[in-house]
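User: Fold this; C-alpha cells only.

Assistant: Input:
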Amino acid sequence: MVAESDPILSLAAMMELADWRRRISDLYAEVRILAATDVERAVELWRTTRERLFREHPQSPVRPGERQAFRARHFRVDPSLRFEVVVAHDEATPAPTSTAGALAGLGLGGLGGSLAMDLPMSVGGTMSFSRIGHVVIPFADGPRRLGVYWMAGYAGGVFLPFRDATSGDETYAAGRYLLDSAKSADLGGDLERGTLILDFNFAFQPSCAFDPKWACPLAPPENRLDIPIRAGERLA
C-alpha cells in the first residue's frame, strides 16, 4: 500500500510504482492461465517472480538494505486449500436483483446492497471500504465465513484479508491477503455463477510486514479464522 512517510512521490518514484504494478498485473494474468491446468507450476511462478521483484525492484516493500539478502519463505503447497466459492449477499443488506448486483464488488454496475464500513490500518486510523458480501469456505475442519470488501477510494477493487491461527507466530501478526484486485492480486472467478477463486497457496503478507513505513488495511474481527492456514507466504 502507500508509504506513510512519502505522501508526495517524485516523478521517478511514480514511474517505478507504475512499473511495479504492471509487473504484478502481468504475473497474475499468467498465474490465472497456468493454474487452470497446473496449480503447482502457477504457485512456483508466483513465488519466484515475487521473490525476484522483492530483491531487485526499486518499489519493493522490503527495506533497501535488506533486499539483496531477501529470500521469501512459504508453506508447502496444499491443493486442498484451493476453492471456488460463491460471493453471497449479506442477510442484513438488500439482496442484489441480478448477477451484476451479486458481483457489484467486481466493478459491475455499482455497489447496490453493499454496506459502508472502515477497516483498521497498520499505522492507526481506518480506510473506507464497502462490504459487498461474504463467502463460505469448506475447509476440512468445517466451513468458515469470510467477509468480502470493495475498496471505496484509491483504484477500487475486491479486497479479502484474513487472519488465522498462524498469525503472530509463523505469519504476520495482523494477517495476510488473499485478494487485492486494486493491486492486480486477483485469482479469477466466474461472472455468470458469481464466484471467486480463493487459493490460500497464494496468500501473501501485506507490505507493512516488511517495513512499518507502509500503511496497510488489516483484517477485521469477522475475518479472523480460528484454524491454522499453513499455505502461502510465511515469515518463520
